[in-house]
Each structure stands twice: as structure tokens, then as C-alpha cells.
Design a protein that fits this description.
The protein has 440 residues and is mainly beta. The chain contains five helices and 30 strands.
């Protein structure tokens, strides 16, 4: 059974599955009806010289977004790499509205020049007369190791140009892997990967539990809880070089770190004076400010985009529900009423909604609450054990833990519930996911 939320951690109960290490692999399970039809031609030159297949990565990105109906090289009988080569009637007959073409050229050594163009098929005339069809174009010079990040960047540019929303293909994920080889102690690995599961690498590997990773607003640091030396402590680690330091090591619980929007403070949960309560820790001065003062369990804080409020989970009403706290006035108001259990809330990027873990009739799903209207909607309804929602920086998707074929995996669902993806793991467990902010 999967761990539901930090409430379990507050009482130091850990349900860890006996699985081995595995990699992630993004898989679209449901897309939207009426997705934008787009053709992506193989980039000229990339098969001969480049270590990464840029057009294949862009194809995968856009297809797995669920918002595009992609015609890739597997169905295209034409692969133009120049505007002058495009036969627009072919792509119109295929049913594509847009077309992506490009080239990858070796500059010698490990340098490559990449150019791409996004074309509107219905604005193009015949071959050699299509310059007016160009909607977007760009050129880049990068090293071989930068080709995959560049491909994600191109996907972001295309996504934003067509849908008007900033893309998330260049973002990253943090999560905890649990592996337990036969006759050996369990090992917990704090790992980061690209949004599609590639380029994964560990930040920390330990035989002691790790949990609650949280990205700093600039994406350069991750705060997390580690139980090294058999006690809970909060660490902050530099993603680029792995350097880290302890920021909170009080007696009792040190947990659920959440970064302020300026990256200077952490909202954390401490039980040093009794019951778990929420504090603000100034990272520079180490000054602590206590925000909640009662004998309930108060945990899982998350900041609003404007930094004026926090949402948190509390059982002050008898069962875990979501509350909002104004740090300036200390005013607290209850937000969640649907269901008998709501937890692990966080704001969408516009500050108008919160996503949360929701239980009704013993079933855990991911839901979203409109803060203006009070309307609550379920985003998942599979009846599968779900946990730990984390919202993408553009607010379009929610990352969460779920079960697939009896294993803990990561799932994604759009904020309207229409697009669903899965990052299935092979022979392993992935838990406690956290979506990065936009990265430079």
C-alpha cells in the first residue's frame, strides 16, 4: 500500500515497498479530443551526425502532451528539411494544420548548428513558394550534450506558439526511488530527471529514508527530509554539484519543507514543543516564526504564488482537511469540505485553484478546487491508490504517485482531467514526486 501524505510521516510511519531500482518512461494513456494535428518531419542531417534525434524528441514531447495529434516519420512519406521543399497539398491532404521542419549540421568537434521552422500548412502555396507559411523559426549552436535539452526547448517554443501556454518540456522532476535487493538493506535514492524521465541522476543515496523533496523557486536547490542518524532533519542541496547542509534539526519532527517565492525562507513542520505545527524558517538568519499554535496536527504547508498565504493540512476539525493561513494576520480559514479526507494541497500558478489529494468512500484520487466558486472537481477517477500531487509550473498538469500493475509509479493528469500520462517503472518504486519550476 502506498503512503498517502506527510500525515503518515508525522507519526513516523513509513510504508516502503520491496522493489528494485528502475527507470522512467513517459507514456500517454489518454489525450484530448480535437487535438491539434501537426506533422513533424525528420530533421535533415541529424541521422548522419548528431548523437540525439531532435525531431524524434520533439515528436515524443508534443504527442505525450496529449494536446497534439502528431504525424511523425512513421506515417510521413515526405521529409522536407527546407521550406522550398514542402509540398503543402500533401500535408493538407494528410490532415495536418502545422508542420515542423529543420536541420542539424555538424560544426566540427562536438558542436552542432540546429535550425527549425514551424509552418502553417494552410498559408503555404506550392513547392518553393511557402515563405509566407513560416509561423516560427530559430537557429541554435550547441554541444552534443545540449541537443536533448535543446529539443525540449524547441518543443516548448512550438507548444507556446500554438496553444498560447508556456511549455513544460524543459522542466525537471525530483522523486524518491526505493530499492531493496535481496538480503541487503533498503536503499533510498533522491533522484532528478527530465520531465520525460530521461537524464536521471541521483542526488543522494542512503539506507535511511528520504522524503518530501521540494524545489527552490530558481530550480537550483532542493530541500528534503532525511532520516540520517535515525532522526528527521531537513537538508538543502545544490542540484548542480551535490553540496548540501542541514537547515533544521530540532528534536522531534522536522518535515514538509516548502520554499517561499523569493527562495529566502522555508515553511516547515516542527514538533519540538509538542504537536506538529507550522513555522517559517529564515534561511539566512535561521530565525524561526511559529504560525500555528494548537494541539492538532498541522502539516504540509504550501505557498500561494503571491506569497501572501499558505495552504496546509490539519485535523483540527476531526479529520484531515485543507486550510488557508495568512502569515501576516495569522487568520485561518477552512477551504475543503467535499470528501472525508483532503490533504497535500498546492496552488496552481494563477493562484485561483488548489490541487489536492482527496478521499471519498475509501478511494484516494486527485482533485482540484476553484477558490472563487468553491467548486471541487475530481481529476482522476480510476479507483487506484493515488498520492502526493505536485503541480507543473504552468498549472496545466498535476504530477502524482499512483499504482499500476501493483507497483508505485508516477502519473500525470491535466488540470481539466482530459489528458492522462503514466511514467511506468520497471521493477521499482517511485514516490514523493515534485515538479520543478521553469528553468533557465
Amino acid at each position: 500500500m502506498m503512503r498517502k501524505l506527510f500525515f503518515i510521516a508525522v507519526v513516523l510511519s513509513f510504508i516502503i515497498s520491496n522493489r528494485a531500482f528502475a527507470l522512467l518512461n513517459l507514456e500517454l494513456t489518454r489525450g484530448v479530443e480535437g487535438a491539434v494535428p501537426i506533422a513533424i518531419s525528420a530533421f535533415g542531417g541529424e541521422a548522419q551526425s548528431a548523437p540525439e534525434d531532435i525531431s524524434a524528441i520533439v515528436t515524443s514531447d508534443l504527442k505525450n502532451s496529449g494536446r497534439f495529434k502528431v504525424f511523425g516519420r512513421d506515417v510521413l512519406s515526405q521529409s522536407p528539411s527546407d521550406v522550398e521543399q514542402v509540398q503543402y497539398h500533401y500535408f493538407r491532404d494528410l490532415g495536418a494544420d502545422k508542420l515542423v521542419i529543420g536541420k542539424v549540421q555538424s560544426l566540427g568537434g562536438d558542436r552542432y548548428q540546429v535550425n527549425f521552422e514551424l509552418l502553417d500548412v494552410f498559408k503555404g502555396k506550392e513547392e518553393g513558394q511557402g515563405s509566407q507559411s513560416i509561423v516560427l523559426k530559430d537557429k541554435f549552436s550547441v554541444s552534443g550534450r545540449q541537443l536533448r535539452p535543446l529539443a525540449h526547448h524547441i518543443s516548448d517554443l512550438i507548444y507556446q506558439q500554438i496553444l498560447g501556454v508556456k511549455g513544460i518540456f524543459s522542466t525537471r522532476l525530483a522523486y524518491v526511488l526505493v530499492q531493496r535487493p535481496s538480503n541487503m538493506p533498503a536503499r533510498y535514492i533522491l533522484e532528478v530527471s527530465d520531465q520525460d524521465g530521461y537524464n536521471s541522476h541521483p542526488l543522494l543515496s542512503s539506507t535511511d529514508p528520504i522524503m518530501s523533496p521540494a524545489w527552490s523557486p530558481d530550480g537550483k536547490r532542493i530541500a528534503y527530509v532525511s532520516f540520517e542518524n535515525k532522526r528527521a532533519s531537513i537538508y538543502v542541496e545544490e542540484v548542480s554539484n551535490g553540496s548540501r547542509h542541514v537547515v533544521s534539526q530540532f528534536n522531534g519532527i522536522n518535515g514538509a519543507p516548502a520554499w517561499s517565492r523569493d527562495g529566502r525562507k522555508l515553511a516547515i513542520v516542527l514538533s519540538k514543543d509538542g504537536s506538529p505545527n507550522i513555522y517559517i524558517l529564515d534561511l539566512a538568519s535561521q530565525q524561526l516564526t511559529q504560525l500555528t499554535h494548537d494541539w492538532s496536527i498541522n502539516t504540509e504547508p504550501a505557498w500561494s504564488p503571491d506569497g501572501r498565504n499558505l495552504v496546509f493540512t490539519s485535523n483540527r476539525g476531526g479529520a484531515p482537511q485543507i486550510y488557508q493561513l495568512n502569515p501576516a494576520t495569522r487568520a485561518v480559514s477552512r477551504l475543503s469540505y467535499d470528501g472525508d479526507y483532503n490533504a497535500r494541497a498546492s496552488y496552481t500558478s494563477d493562484g485561483q485553484h488548489i490541487a489536492m489529494l482527496h478521499r471519498q468512500n475509501g478511494i484516494f484520487n486527485i482533485g482540484i478546487l476553484d477558490l472563487d466558486s468553491g467548486q471541487f472537481r475530481l481529476l482522476t477517477s480510476s479507483g487506484i491508490d493515488n498520492e502526493s500531487p505536485s503541480i507543473a509550473p504552468n498549472g496545466s498538469m498535476v504530477l502524482f504517485g499512483t499504482l499500476y500493475n501493483g507497483q508505485s509509479v508516477l502519473g500525470m493528469v491535466s488540470n481539466d482531467g482530459k489528458v492522462q500520462l503514466r511514467l511506468p517503472e520497471r521493477n521499482g518504486e517511485v514516490q514523493d514526486p515534485a515538479w520543478s519550476p521553469f528553468l533557465t
